[in-house]
Amino acid sequence: MATDIKTLANGVTTGDRRALARAITLVESDRKDHRKDAEALLEATTNPDRQALRIGLSGTPGVGKSTFIEAFGSLLTGQGLRVAVLAVDPSSARSGGSILGDKTRMERLVRDPNAFIRPSPSQTHLGGVARRTRDAVALCEAAGFDVILIETVGVGQSETIVAEMSDLFVLLIAPGGGDELQGVKRGIMEIADLILVNKSDGDLKATASRTVADYAGALRLLRKREGDPDGFPRAMPVSSLEDIGLETAWADMKTLADHRKNTGFWAKRRVDQARHWFEDEVRQGLLRHLQSDQHAEEAMAGLRKSVEDGLRTPGAAAREALAWLTKDA
Q1: What is this structure's pTM?
Q2: Which strands make up the sheet holding 168-173, listed edge to edge?
Q3: Nearest by Cα to 301 from 321, 283, 316
Q4: Domain boundary among 240, 262, 284
Q5: pLDDT digits (tens, 9 = 90+) for 102-153
């Protein structure tokens, strides 16, 4: 059955959760007819006046991201805010399906009428950010959510992708410091606005304090960034189980967001992000064209084989492949 874009768009913009879920399913689809409908839907729901606070969240495995999101999300909904959670699960390379199922670990938040949780398979995309997550973010904004939490998989240099679709980036760390600090890539440290040391309670409280000090020291070595007020980025302890530090973390996020809005950095960053994703869509479209055109695909296969056999350099072969697009144009 063909999708009624106008009806679906109206459902999204009026806050209908079922319509939003259907809309996200549509934009995640790779079917050619669905992509056309998805683009029409996104055009119909775009409203520059509706801007949520987009918070990217990443952390090392086992740090308690789901527990933190449930506690933090509940704090926000308790203040009357509407919260959307886009939890990007690792995908099976074989089936493309999700492995973790974050939604099952947020039992309290999933029942909250002011919260919307959407787990999405990463579809093997670099950095664990689903290829259409940015479209899902746009739909959640159109639906009137105040805060959008984008949970990404793992910690690595490729996680900088999430910074291109969020207003703030939060890195969640487990108590430990020392060796773990060595394992966190400098690129992640450079984009983090807040470093939250989770599990800062019980027997781990003292260890967590030392870890906060370690990261605070590391942050002082980084060059001050555009758009940051004094004191940012910063590290602080939190406990998702005992709700310690969550209100302080939220207050700091609002302070940083307000500062960026007042200085014009927020608007500039949104423009830069829109430009980045436009260029990314063009690159992806060029690649899809090469893969879908029979003659281009045959040429690609030959060039690929010459590279594998060491007869051509990757750069020279790539330039020849791109020449097919120039010829078509």
Answers
A1: 0.85
A2: 115-121, 83-89, 147-151, 53-59, 168-173, 194-197, 234-237
A3: 321
A4: 262
A5: 555 678 898 999 999 998 665 545 444 556 788 999 999 999 999 999 988 6
